[in-house]
Specification:
- 2 copies of one chain form a homodimer.
- By secondary structure, chain A is of the alpha/beta class.
- The first copy, chain A, has a single domain, classed as 3-Layer(aba) Sandwich (Rossmann fold).
- Helix content of chain A is 44%, strand content 18%.
- In chain A, strands 3-2-4-1-5-6-7 form a 7-stranded parallel sheet, with helices on both faces.
- Chain A is globular, with a radius of gyration of 17 Å.
- Chains A and B meet through helix 5 of A and helix 5 of B.
């Protein structure tokens, strides 16, 4: 079983490298959004795309076991989106994403959001070629999630603590949640956001723009070095 | 890959049959609780055990990637509990549960709650030998979850719509969520509960007692037929 797992992961890593090379060649910032089901990823993405407005070309790959509901919600913002249904599968893999990128042809110099299947376990092991994994943690989920699902929080560079508008109605200790995330990943960045009220959206979009500037800088370096 | 998946599932099903036979021999009602991370399974379980009081012996198997926090929370109620850490694994399997049952030796004629890893995909395929899968859906997760994770809701006999105390603060359409669950599983039973306020706990405990009476009836039939 361990050998088989390594074969699958090594095959996936090959496809992920191809994706990463494609993103670098085209100056695309690819973000892999990971979370529990129902953390509010799609609502957050809709608001993010609306607030980014014309500043930056946004493209979206949506992953779900079934339905194309999320891609439809994204397309209503005007952003191109493609839905991957994983069937029995519990995560996106780099091969699926490579195919979706071919169909979608995301614009050079823009942002590609990849919304993974809602699952705090399986997507942690599968590199899609993204620049960063971004974990979304809803305040309704409890402070202990980073400790119970440590691989996901260890693999992420940023955690968005979402649905902060609900804090007055919950017994959620946000500082304890952040401390738990830092226990498994001392370098993780944390932003508090609410897709409903807009709290923290400015800081999140500033983070995206900074990460995209880094992706472009890598792109320029590559061009200069060719 | 498909052959391998069938091998794993068929091996699991063998262990599940052994577990089911053990539960039947001992008149134990085994319930497999499945949900997203953060749906409130453990809090619900704590309150359930407290409200059942001395009426019924309760034992608990807790599944998580990491930590033994949940088993500790359960033990504070006085109920025996054992924690299984799945490491990289995204679900409990029947072999793990069989071992846990050996260690725990749950009382004859009681209820064994098996709290699976928080994950709406992987646990759907793995029979643990339980009498029923019970899905917990938090009202904070959105109405679309049954459609996006249909296997889990198709495999469950009961869905507990949890955290109903938060409904006044959400745009959640509970009737749409129930209709979506019935689309993928017309026979599914639905109960609305709140582990915080106690709403619906009476109906949920009545369901447990009825299911346990059925398990005992099966047990008596078995004894009579021996």
């Amino acid at each position: 079983m361990i050998q088989l797992e390594q074969d699958i992961l090594s095959k996936n890593n090959g496809y992920a490298s191809e994706n990463r090379r494609h993103f670098a060649d085209h100056g695309i910032l690819a973000l892999n959004l990971v979370s529990s089901p129902g953390s509010g990823k799609t609502s957050l993405l809709v608001r993010t795309i609306q607030e980014i407005g014309g500043d930056l070309a946004c493209n979206v790959i949506e992953g779900d076991q079934q339905t194309s509901a999320d891609a439809e919600r994204i397309r209503e913002t005007g952003a191109p989106a493609i839905q991957i249904n994983t069937g029995k599968g519990c995560h996106l893999d780099a091969h699926m994403v490579g195919h979706a990128v071919e169909h979608l042809s995301p614009a050079d110099g823009g942002v590609l959001f990849i919304e993974n299947v809602g699952n705090l376990v399986c997507p942690a092991s599968f590199d899609l070629g993204e620049a960063h994994k971004v974990a979304i943690l809803s305040v309704t989920e409890g402070e202990d999630k980073p400790l119970k699902y440590p691989d996901m929080f260890a693999a992420s560079d940023l955690v968005l603590v979402n649905k902060t508008d609900l804090l007055p109605h919950l017994d959620f200790d946000i500082e304890a949640a952040i401390a738990n995330a830092r226990k498994v990943n001392p370098a993780i960045r944390v932003l508090k956001v609410s897709a409903r009220t807009g709290e923290g959206m400015g800081a999140w979009i500033a983070w995206i723009k900074a990460a995209r500037a880094m992706a472009l800088a890598g792109h320029e370096t590559l061009k200069a070095g060719e």
